[in-house]
Design goal:
Oligomer: single chain
Strand order of the largest sheet: 1-2
Radius of gyration: 20 Å
Shape: globular
Number of helices: 15
Length: about 375
């Protein structure tokens, strides 16, 4: 088991590390850079194209691994060299090939839309159209839906809304060095453990691949960043995170997983959801478009409180871990303990809101 985790994380990490180095050099030569100005904090041009580097490091291993399982299962070629854990789930992994092809295809569509936007801003409308189109395709023809206990129309609508919201949450979160990638890596690691505890193999492996790909990119993206992911990275990253949550089994009476498990994704992603919600509220109160970039994000507000940008990012990392880690046991505990865990998550988010909105210029 630990060997599989090491491969699932280590392989994408090395691929992403090498590709990010190469893409950064190419972006600088091609003048594919993010220039300072407006609401942007950096003082000199920074290479774009991080998404070009880590997306193949994530999608490639996931796709190739699923194809390999399909070949081994279909041809009966799985020998003793295939780990027993994988052999047990080989048929299930192979059956996911059509879904994985659709997921990778959706990620590529959003990656290309983001790449165009990074080169020449498209405005919010084309990006939202692409997001809704991909989400409708995933929830409709592909059949990957959340809350399938609900009637089909409600499940479909909830899935489309969830994919679009989480996609934009990580897009919004990409406002400071290492922030979006780091939060996504922490959340993906927690989802990997949660899915493994529910008896799944493919989803934990996919989440571990996401962790590895992002860690390789973070070597160059953490403060002070020498390359940004851009929309070409943040849009497909948010999409992949939303899909991981939908594919994870959180409620299964046969495994003693309680119905409260369905809110695990909200708990793990509480910080990104808090950021996107608070930013939209701040912008609407100011009479601005909720889709217009500015410095009203959670991270920017922490910097205004006196933190350094790196300190703000690390604080948000810790907040993500604080809300997310209890979610690992949430589906397996009884109701009183589950309520306490939910209250803990709510207390962390409320504490963040109170601290960042408390005035600091009081006189004695």
């Amino acid at each position: 088991m630990y060997g599989l985790v090491l491969i699932a994380v280590g392989g994408p990490f090395l691929i992403s590390l090498a590709m990010t180095y190469g893409v950064r050099a190419w972006a600088r030569r091609a003048e594919f850079v993010d220039r300072p100005g407006g609401h942007k904090r950096h003082e000199s041009p920074v290479a774009l194209g991080g998404g070009i580097a880590f997306m193949p490091a994530i999608c490639g291993p996931v796709l190739l691994g699923t194809i390999a399982a399909w070949v081994l299962h279909g041809g009966g070629a799985a020998g003793d060299w295939v780990p027993a854990l994988v052999q047990t789930h080989l048929a299930g992994i192979a059956s996911k090939l059509p879904a994985i092809l659709a997921i990778v295809g959706g990620a590529i569509v959003l990656h290309l839309v983001g790449l165009i936007d990074d080169r020449r801003p498209l405005g919010p409308a084309p990006k939202f159209i692409a997001q809704f189109a991909v989400a409708i395709f995933i929830a409709g023809p592909v059949g990957i839906r959340a809350l399938q206990v609900l009637p089909l129309p409600l499940s479909f609508a909830a899935t489309v809304l969830w994919i679009v919201v989480i996609t934009n949450a990580f897009n919004f979160l990409d406002n400071m060095d290492g922030l979006s990638a780091g939060v996504a890596a922490i959340a993906a690691a927690i989802f990997a453990v949660t899915a493994a505890r529910s008896g799944q193999v493919f989803v934990p492996a996919m989440a571990c691949v996401v962790v590895g790909g992002l860690l390789g990119f973070l070597v160059y993206n953490f403060s002070p960043a020498t390359i940004f992911m851009g929309d070409a990275g943040s849009l497909p990253l948010g999409f992949l995170m939303s899909v991981v949550t939908i594919l994870t089994t959180f409620y299964d009476p046969a495994r003693n997983l309680t119905p409260l498990g369905v809110i695990v994704p909200i708990v793990i992603l509480a910080v990104p959801l808090y950021d996107v919600t608070s930013v939209v509220i701040h912008r609407l109160r100011a009479g601005d478009s909720p889709l217009r970039g500015d410095r009203r994000h959670f991270s920017h507000r922490l910097v205004k409180r006196g933190m350094t940008p790196r300190g703000a990012v690390l604080t948000i990392y810790l907040a993500t871990a604080a809300t997310g880690l209890p979610a690992i046991i949430l589906p397996t505990v009884d109701w009183p303990i589950a309520v306490l865990l939910l209250l803990q998550c709510l207390a962390v988010v409320t504490m963040i809101a109170v601290l960042e909105h408390t005035p600091t210029d009081r006189t004695a």
